[in-house]
Protein: NAD kinase
Amino acid sequence: MKYALLDRGDRLSRALSEEFQGLAAARGFMMNETSPDIVVSIGGDGTLLQAFHRFKNQLENVAFIGIHTGHLGFYADWKKDELSELLDLMVSSEPRKVQYPLLQVEILTSSGKIELLALNEFTLKSVDGTLVAALHINDEPFEMFRGDGIVISTPTGSTGYNKSLGGAVIHPSLEALQIAEMASINNRVYRTLGSSVILPKHHHCDIIPDPEKELFIGIDHEVMQMSEVRSITCRVAENKITFARYRPFPFWNRVREAFIGSE
Ligand code: NAP
Ligand code: MN
Structure:
């Protein structure tokens, strides 16, 4: 088995990374940063987001495993004291391959088209002042948004930024995207639904901002600034991310442990 390893860079994550490499070598695993079968992320959910973006061009061939150096995470579901248990399972058993939906974002600017892929979400804000944008669903005008911003998330991203905005938590077996508002201003001219909206696969939404305005475009942990944006199209992506599950950890148990606590 060929594996790639990415750690958060703090002392604990680096130490665990070395421990993992030692245990892996003893079991005959090969490190391979260019065409791995398994991508191991050591740190937090944020580290797994980085690992995803490093290997997003070879999603068909890789499966991810996340090790958390703090509390349990949503993507990082192995704890720091479980490395040998994990590696023993990697030697002795076949993992269940679990796939989660991704978000495809297409941005049309005056200089061309940009395609992006998100594991958690796409975030849109205005650089100065409030964001003003029209939102269309399946090519029909839906609402005129005015407010702090719009967050469009995947099911596994629904427990991230989306949840802080009052969006629903969506089980990742549902192929869907969720549109959540950030502090919309509502009056007779600018009127939005207020609640978050969930679209199924094969539906899409377009955001049409004022092309004169500078925008902050966020994809997961990364933010970029863009100008002359004509439209932004979001839909459920055709490809998915694969996780190698060596033991079950149901999504609702992760939600309970992260937000409610286990008794
Ligand atoms: P960060 O500022 O360290 O992340 C914020 C927190 O979100 C961290 O505790 C992170 O966990 C957690 N997180 C990431 N993905 C999650 C998911 N799918 N479900 C539940 N929690 C999740 O930045 P980061 O680590 O680079 O993560 C970027 C993500 O942070 C974004 O994609 C967005 O979802 C989230 N975010 C949230 C807010 C908000 O809630 N107001 C604002 C900005 C961004 P770890 O500590 O394990 O990394
Ligand atoms: Mn983080």
In short: Residues 44, 46 surround manganese (II) ion (ligand 2) (CB under 6 Å). The mean pLDDT is 96. The chain has two domains: 2-95+246-259, 102-239. The domain at 102-239 is CATH 2.60.200.30 (Tumour Suppressor Smad4).
